């Protein structure tokens, strides 16, 4: 018998081992059912899985003798009771992303529900899904699928719900979807679909819910939509249709919710809408609707919310509205309505919100308003109402906003307001109220905003105002008979930011500033206050404006004011201050406007450049004051004689230099003459505070001098730098204006020139002729945000940029009269001063060339109850949107630019994680909560519906309450 050689034995052993491994591999493969294999293939195609949410999608090592589908135990997978068929796949909010074909789903023919919502899936819609012909629910909302919607969806014969909200689809709406007879819910809102609504959309057999809002749809609303007899919910607004509301919509007998707001609709409101007797909510605001409010709306007794605001409606409120017993919201603001408010409105038992501001209503408010319903918000401002505030307006104890300004309300306030403990906001300014202010602030724990200005109150400011612990804004200015004193403890209110009591006949001394940590504005001009300004004012470290002009204050100018690093405006004019001007005032980098005129100050004005830029008007009326910029020179003192001799020795050199200067001037004049040859009309010059009074010729020479052009070249065709005769470097913007509009433009620029805030670039002057203008403003040394945004900086620095921009915008939107939108808010228009404080540049410039064609000066400066031209409202909302985009750009070092439309497609938690990672903020870092708030503000500001965005006043409140604020203030 032949014995095997060792090599043959080893070969046989290796062969047996390979057979064993192969059998194991085959059995393992056989253990994976095809459905699970398809899902694993889908998983391998996914590019993004930030949270490893599919980590349990693995094949177990043990065998699968029962032949059950392994995937039935995986997260998001739903099977039948026997685990033999996959009937549901829910991958929502899994932080998944990338491009998918949908081919992996072809085996899942029994799938009933597929949910891919709240992820990052992008590119074209996966047409493989259309092979899942048993689908009943398909949700792909809040992703970033793009491009035209593909054909084939009509294959889903059993589909009941299709939700594709908030994607990036473009092109026409898919008309073929109307062929699905079972479809009940259709949501295609929040994309970029364009063109008209297909008339085929009137063919749906079972549709109950349709949402097409927030696209780019145009054309007329098809009258065929009225055929949708089973529809209960229709949202098709925030598009740009042509024409009006089809009368056929009145045939949708089951409709409960109708929203066609912000859709450019015109013409009258069809009376046929009165046939919608099941309707609960009707939103037609922000259109161009005209004519009367249909009287027949009283037939819709189910109505709870009616918003027809921001249109061009005329006529009265129908008296028949007294039949709307379920009405909670009635918003008719910003129309051309007139007449009186029907008494029946006050009798509506469910009414909570009444917004009818900026119309032409007259007469008295119903005396029983608030007595029969839980009234929470009343705004009737900017009308012609007379009479008194209804005594029971807060009888139910839930009223939190009462806005009555700019009417003709008379007599004293109802004492019942003192018991309205729910009040948060009270605006009664610009009326004819008289008598004592009956407010008992100890009974108003939540009050935050009170404006009683421009009335005829008397009896003084209530002394218990110091108990209003949540008060942030208080204005009682222009009540000449008010009298009384500034209450003790007023500065200790923990949240107080603005205290205004100018022209109120106040007497006495200023209370000590024991605690005023958030105080930013003090306005007490034109009173009879006396005494010294306490050194304790240094506790108001964030004070930005202090106006104590036209009083009887005495003593020396408090040098501690120079320590207030945020103080931008200080007006102490028309008082009895004595002594010299502290030179330290010149060290205040924030100080923009200083007025010390008409006091008893003496001595030389400190020679620092900042004082000379203030102009002589800041110092006149002080007979003992001398030196530039006053024309009154200071007499030479003995120690100045030697200096005078040295100056004489330099005189010869001056003569030599002058001869050179003459040559330069000759060249400049030739340039100016050449320049003026092509212009029309004489040049004029307007200078604002901070710029010496140059002539137009001085400025024009500077533009065309060889020295200025060589050392500081033009930046662009319309903006450049220039060196003025005294060596001041300014930025210059060239604006071409239609001659007929120039007068209005001059008025507008003068308005901007008087605007002063530490987060706004100063306008210095305006040089113009018949059709050409040059605006001069501060040239700041540290560049703009666009140039620095990719430079990595710490969280505190980023917060400082964000809060600075917010303060500048808030001033434009709320604190300046009239309201001025920025109009072009972007990173290149945010510049930095010498302390890296952000300032907004070119605010309002967008409106300059055509200002005369559309003068949208606003009569008041409030966002939430303002009264604006439609164009101004849109610009303000766009400012807020752009601010939200800027926040995202700053927080991500420029990565998320112009991301307002797409950022909502991602879960908030993912966005926050990315931003914290980019800013090196760990999971346990306490600053993480502050970052979360700032990100939430960005998301609020970039909401697709403008009316849902917060005002800049609300934004600033949210941003100002963060822990980071203290850290940021310490860096200023």
From TrEMBL:
Domain Protein kinase intervals: 689-962
Pfam families in UniProt: LRR_1 (PF00560), LRR_8 (PF13855), LRRNT_2 (PF08263), PK_Tyr_Ser-Thr (PF07714)
GO annotation, cellular component aspect: membrane
GO biological process entries: defense response; post-embryonic development; response to other organism
Domain of life: Eukaryota
The keyword Membrane is annotated on this UniProt entry: yes
Annotated TM spans: 651-675
Subcellular localization(s) per the UniProt record: Membrane
Cleavable signal peptide: 1-31
Coiled-coil residue windows: none
Main location group: membrane
Alphabetized GO MF terms: ATP binding; protein kinase activity; receptor serine/threonine kinase binding
UniProt-listed SUPFAM superfamilies: L domain-like, Protein kinase-like (PK-like), RNI-like
InterPro entries, sorted: Kinase-like_dom_sf, Leu-rich_rpt, Leu-rich_rpt_typical-subtyp, LRR_dom_sf, LRR_N_plant-typ, Plant_LRR-RLKs, Prot_kinase_dom, Ser-Thr/Tyr_kinase_cat_dom
Alphabetically ordered keywords of this record: Glycoprotein, Leucine-rich repeat, Membrane, Repeat, Signal, Transmembrane, Transmembrane helix
Recorded family membership: Belongs to the RLP family.
Protein name: Protein kinase domain-containing protein
Species of the source: Rhododendron simsii
């Amino acid at each position: 018998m032949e014995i095997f050689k060792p090599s043959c034995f080893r070969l046989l052993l290796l062969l047996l081992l390979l057979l064993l491994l192969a059998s194991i591999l085959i059995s393992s493969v056989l253990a994976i059912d095809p459905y699970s294999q398809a899902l694993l293939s889908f998983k391998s195609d996914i590019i993004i899985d930030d949270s490893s949410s599919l980590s349990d999608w693995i094949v177990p090592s043990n065998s699968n003798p029962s032949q059950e589908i392994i995937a039935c135990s995986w997260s998001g997978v739903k099977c039948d009771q026997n685990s033999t068929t996959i009937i549901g796949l829910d991958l929502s909010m899994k932080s998944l992303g990338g491009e998918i074909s949908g081919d992996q789903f072809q085996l899942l023919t029994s799938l009933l529900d597929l949910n891919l919502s709240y992820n990052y899936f992008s590119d074209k819609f996966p047409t493989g899904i259309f092979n899942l012909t048993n689908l009943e629910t398909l949700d792909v909302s809040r992703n970033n699928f793009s491009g035209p919607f593909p054909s084939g969806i009509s294959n889903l014969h059993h589909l009941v719900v299709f939700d594709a909200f908030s994607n990036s689809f473009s092109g026409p709406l898919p008309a073929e979807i109307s062929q699905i007879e079972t479809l009940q819910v259709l949501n295609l809102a929040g994309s970029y679909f364009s063109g008209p609504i297909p008339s085929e959309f009137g063919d749906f057999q079972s549709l109950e819910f349709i949402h097409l809002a927030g696209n780019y749809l145009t054309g007329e609303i098809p009258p065929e939509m009225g055929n949708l007899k089973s529809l209960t919910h229709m949202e098709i607004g925030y598009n740009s249709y042509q024409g009006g509301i089809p009368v056929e919509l009145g045939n949708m007998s089951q409709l409960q919710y109708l929203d066609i707001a912000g859709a450019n609709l015109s013409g009258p409101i069809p009376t046929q809408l009165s046939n919608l007797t099941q309707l609960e909510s009707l939103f037609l605001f922000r259109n161009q609707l005209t004519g009367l409010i249909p009287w027949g709306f009283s037939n819709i007794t189910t109505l709870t919310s009616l918003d027809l605001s921001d249109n061009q409606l005329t006529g009265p409120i129908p008296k028949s509205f007294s039949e709307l017993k379920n009405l909670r919201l009635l918003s008719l603001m910003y129309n051309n309505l007139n007449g009186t408010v029907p008494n029946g409105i006050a009798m509506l038992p469910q009414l909570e919100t009444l917004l009818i501001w900026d119309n032409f209503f007259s007469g008295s408010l119903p005396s029983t308003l608030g007595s029969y319903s839980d009234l929470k918000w009343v705004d009737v401002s900017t009308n012609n109402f007379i009479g008194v505030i209804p005594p029971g307006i807060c009888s139910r104890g839930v009223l939190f906003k009462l806005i009555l300004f700019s009417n003709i309300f008379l007599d004293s306030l109802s004492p019942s307001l003192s018991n309205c403990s729910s009040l948060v906001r009270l605006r009664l300014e610009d009326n004819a109220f008289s008598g004592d202010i009956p407010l008992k602030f100890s009974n108003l724990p939540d009050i935050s905003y009170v404006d009683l200005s421009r009335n005829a109150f008397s009896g003084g400011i209530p002394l218990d105002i110091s108990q209003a612990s949540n008060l942030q804004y208080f204005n009682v200015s222009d009540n000449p008979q008010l009298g009384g004193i500034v209450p003790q403890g007023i500065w200790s209110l923990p949240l107080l930011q603005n205290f205004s009591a100018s022209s109120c006949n106040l007497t006495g001394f200023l209370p000590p500033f024991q605690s005023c940590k958030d105080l930013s504005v003090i306005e007490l001009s034109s009173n009879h206050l006396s005494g010294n300004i306490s050194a304790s004012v240094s506790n108001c470290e964030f004070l930005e404006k202090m106006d104590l002009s036209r009083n009887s204050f005495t003593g020396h100018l408090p040098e501690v004011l120079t320590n207030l690093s945020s103080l931008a405006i200080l007006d102490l004019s028309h008082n009895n201050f004595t002594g010299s001007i502290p030179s330290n005032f010149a060290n205040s980098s924030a100080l923009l406007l200083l007025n010390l005129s008409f006091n008893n100050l003496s001595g030389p004005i400190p020679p620092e450049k900042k004082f000379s830029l203030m102009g002589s008007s800041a110092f006149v009326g002080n007979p003992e004051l001398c030196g530039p910029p006053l024309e009154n020179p200071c007499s030479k003192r003995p120690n100045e004689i030697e200096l005078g001799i040295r100056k004489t020795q330099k005189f010869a050199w001056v003569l030599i230099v002058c001869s050179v200067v003459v040559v330069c001037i000759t060249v400049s004049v030739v340039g100016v003459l050449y320049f003026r040859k092509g212009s029309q009309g004489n040049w004029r010059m307007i200078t604002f505070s901070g710029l010496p009074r140059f002539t137009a010729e001085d400025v024009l020479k500077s533009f065309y001098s060889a020295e200025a052009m060589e050392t500081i070249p033009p930046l662009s065709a319309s903006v450049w730098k220039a060196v003025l005769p005294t060596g001041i470097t300014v930025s210059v913007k060239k604006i071409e204006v239609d001659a007929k509009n120039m007068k209005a433009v001059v008025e507008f620029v003068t308005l901007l020139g008087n605007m002063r805030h530490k987060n706004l670039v100063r306008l210095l002057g305006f040089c113009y002729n018949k059709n050409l203008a040059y605006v001069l403003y501060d040239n700041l040394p540290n560049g703009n945000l666009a140039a620095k945004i990719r430079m990595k900086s710490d969280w505190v620095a980023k917060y400082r940029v964000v809060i600075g921009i917010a303060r500048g915008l808030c001033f434009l939107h709320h604190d300046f009269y009239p309201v001025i939108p920025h109009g072009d808010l972007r990173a290149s228009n945010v510049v930095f001063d010498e302390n890296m404080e952000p300032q907004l540049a070119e605010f309002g410039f967008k409106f300059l060339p055509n200002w005369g064609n559309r003068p949208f000066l606003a009569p008041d400066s409030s966002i939430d109850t303002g009264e604006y031209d439609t164009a101004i409202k849109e610009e303000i909302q766009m400012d807020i949107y752009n601010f939200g985009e800027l926040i995202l750009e700053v927080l991500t070092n420029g990565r998320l630019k112009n991301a307002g439309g797409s950022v909502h497609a991602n879960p908030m938690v993912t966005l926050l994680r990315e931003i914290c990672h980019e800013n090196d903020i760990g999971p346990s870092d306490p600053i993480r909560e502050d970052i979360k708030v700032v990100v939430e503000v960005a998301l609020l500001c970039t909401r697709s519906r403008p009316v849902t965005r917060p005002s800049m006043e609300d934004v600033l409140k949210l941003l100002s309450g963060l822990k980071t604020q203290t850290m940021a203030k310490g860096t200023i």
